[in-house]
Amino acid sequence: xxxxxxxxxxxxxxxxxxxxxxxxxxxxxxxxxxxxxxxxxxxxxxxxxxxxxxxxxxxxxxxxxxxxxxxxxxxxxxxxxxxxxxxxxxxxxxxxxxxxxxxxxxxxxxxxxxxxxxxxxxxxxxxxxxxxxxxxxxxxxxxxxxxxxxxxxxxxxxxxxxxxxxxxxxxxxxxxxxxxxxxxxxxxxxxxxxxxxxxxxxxxxxxxxxxxxxxxxxxxxxxxxxxxxxxxxxxxxxxxxxxxxxxxxxxxxxxxxxx
Length: 259
Ligand code: ZN
Ligand code: FE
Hints:
Shape: globular
CATH architecture: 4-Layer Sandwich
Bound molecules: zinc ion, fe (iii) ion
Number of domains: 1
Number of strands: 14
CATH superfamily: Ribonuclease Z/Hydroxyacylglutathione hydrolase-like
Structural class: alpha/beta
């Protein structure tokens, strides 16, 4: 992790996190769905905005772009294949976003599934993954197929275990309730449930997570584990041929799950 870089969540709407990456007095904002909380934060901390990063086109991630541009005429990065308000730097898989003010380079990863053009940003030690990977869960499949999302998550799971994972929503406790229903004998998950509930009781964010913690506790990264396959098969009432079939069943189970 870059020791002089700080990431702070700015809360928006009910459960969105707009991550602000800063170094000294410079700031980059990720997925600003709203304007006022971001402007307030920048003013309070006396920060100069230098770029806006966008992971996908949904309004709760892009709705603040145009208004922020009125105050700070900065480059707007986002997926080339989606319609992003104010975009000036369309990105493709493999591109590198250079943020000299932060002395930070971020690699662009295509992670379709939640939306078709969804991208993630990865730099040494940190991952900004929008609505693709959540703490103990994953995004809904609004546009992509289960196979695409499963492949995207597998890509993220290959990053180093100590990568800090910055997701765009605080969904962790609901995700953990579901995870416990399908992987209830997993000691790492049971331990995590306790830790994250304590954080939320204290009104603290559960993020960042880490790739290692997600691999140990996130059912959608554990489709190859026997316990998850068994849970999915008993719900589907039939044998499931491969990990994608298990993923598909788990995602459908989660869509209708009530704790
Ligand atoms: Zn979204
Ligand atoms: Fe979202």
